[in-house]
Design brief:
This protein is mostly beta strands. It has helices at residues 5-13, 55-58, 339-342, 364-371, 378-384, 392-399, 421-424; strands at residues 3-4, 33-36, 67-71, 73-75, 84-86, 91-96, 102-103, 111-113, 127-130, 146-150, 153-155, 161-162, 170-171, 189-192, 198-202, 205-207, 214-220, 225-229, 232-237, 239-245, 257-261, 264-269, 280-284, 289-293, 296-300, 303-307, 311-315, 318-320, 325-329, 332-334, 354-355. It has a single domain (3-361), classed as Pectate Lyase C-like. Helix content is 10%, strand content 29%. Strand 29 (325-329) and strand 30 (332-334) form a beta hairpin.
């Protein structure tokens, strides 16, 4: 399970990206290696022998194509601000031990990015990389290069404001009286590239975020590629994963191209209890091309995959327990069994997508809370579930909970209740029949 540094390098070289002919001078820097360790770091040298203590402390030093290696620990950013914004293309790798010789990002050497809910702290995305505003000396925007985030756990739980501090329901407004911030209305990993920039997010966990957009959100521009693979998104609002486009032209040869493979997305909530938006495991913008394979998309409060008009191929994806639909194409809503017959933007070679009831090994404490939440128009929701979830006991069974004669009643409102890393990770450790994420290898 513990992987040598060279293993990660081999995995990424297999993409065959490299600096392209479309990379402008501002982004053609060779880059250096930075090392960060919460437990052993000090100062801003950022070497393997003298690592920095937090990514936020050395952001102002970063140059295009720098490689950042982050050891195990809990990271709050500079001044515990709870957000890191980077404006040049970089590669970030987490999950190292303190000697930077082995990686095990979901088990022995977790690199956890979080924050606090102190009043006036940042509500920006926890990891926010954007290169679309960088310009060359002649005034033209810089293009090209690569951005990678690999092996980071993002947990917004400590950044959220919860009703009565019970960790059962988030609040989106600040409370100056109690010196509490609003729950950040932003994703965990948000990346906005520039033209001909390739972006990858892999082997990451994002949880407890409350965005309108994606918990993982990639915006790829003209001529760029996006890879989203082997990530685990659990208990977020908005979209679990969002593939976005920054290209508005008609040249199909430079349309942004996405590969979205082997991800697990579970329990994606609407924006708020009465909202009609959000609540989809995966959302795809129009004006891009996407291959979507071997993902597990389950328990979206609206649906599994929301396609806003992109040309996509779907193979061997698992849909389970989604409340309104498995697949939505603009305004057409479909069950998984009807996708091949009814979808307009789907490549005819798509195949192997299925609906299954699955066991989800999250902790019993959180499962009890989720199974006992009060839903608006619960009967309508249950009736619309594609893979029938015919009541409270059916829902309890997917968690392996004991069945009850009546639904669980909770005293407090429940909306995006806090799930801990230890409670959540077992549900992302192994795929179901090859569909979903796996322990990073």
């Amino acid at each position: 399970m513990k992987n040598q540094i060279s293993t990660a390098i081999i995995l990424l070289v297999s993409f065959n990206w490299g600096i392209s002919q479309n990379t402008s001078p501002n982004f053609s820097n060779e880059g250096r290696d930075w090392f960060i360790s919460k437990n052993t770091g000090s100062g801003q040298m950022g070497t393997k022998e003298r690592p920095a203590k937090d990514l936020g402390n050395i952001i102002h030093h970063l140059k295009p194509n720098d490689r950042i290696h982050i050891a195990e620990g809990i990271y709050m950013s500079k001044g515990s601000s709870g957000s890191d914004e980077i404006n040049v293309p970089v590669k970030i790798y987490g999950g190292y031990d303190t000697s930077f010789t082995t990686r095990d990002p979901w088990d022995a050497h977790k690199t956890i990015f979080t924050g606090t809910n102190e009043y006036m702290k940042s509500t920006q995305p926890r990891i926010y990389i954007r290169t679309d505003q960088q310009r060359e000396n002649n005034g033209q925007k810089s293009t090209g290069s690569e951005i990678i985030v690999d092996g980071i756990i993002v947990d917004h739980g400590p950044r959220n404001r919860y009703h009565l501090d019970k960790n059962l329901a988030i609040r989106r407004k600040a409370s100056p009286k109690s010196q509490q911030n609003p729950s950040p209305e932003s994703g965990g990993i948000v990346i906005v590239g520039s033209n001909f920039t390739n972006i990858a997010v892999q082997n990451c966990v994002v949880m407890n975020t409350a965005p309108t957009e994606g918990a993982i959100s990639l915006r790829v521009f003209k001529g760029g590629q996006g890879i989203i693979q082997n990530n685990f998104c659990i208990n977020n609002t908005g979209y679990g994963i969002q593939a976005r486009t920054g290209y508005v032209g008609s040249d199909e040869s430079v349309l942004p191209k996405f590969q979205i493979k082997h991800n697990t997305v579970l329990f994606t909530w609407k924006h708020d209890p009465i909202a009609s938006y959000g609540g989809d495991a995966l959302a795809i913008d129009q004006n891009l091309v996407a291959a979507i394979e071997n993902n597990a998309l389950g328990y979206g409060h609206m649906g599994g995959l929301y396609n806003k008009g992109a040309k996509i191929t779907m193979k061997n994806n698992l849909f389970t327990g989604n409340s309104k639909y498995d697949y939505r194409e603009i305004n057409d809503k479909m069950a998984v069994a009807d996708i091949l017959d009814e979808a307009m933007y789907l490549d005819p070679m798509s195949d192997g997508n299925q609906g299954l009831l699955i066991k989800i090994p999250v902790a019993e404490r959180w499962a009890e809370i989720y199974a006992g939440r009060q839903e608006i128009s619960r009967e309508e929701v249950d009736a619309a579930v594609t893979v029938p979830n015919t009541g409270a006991n059916q829902l309890r069974s997917i968690f392996g909970l004991n069945l009850q004669g009546s639904a669980v009643a909770m005293d407090a409102e429940i909306f995006l209740p806090l799930i801990t890393i230890e409670e959540a990770l077992p549900a992302g450790m192994y795929p179901w029949e090859g569909m979903g994420c796996n322990i990073p290898k």
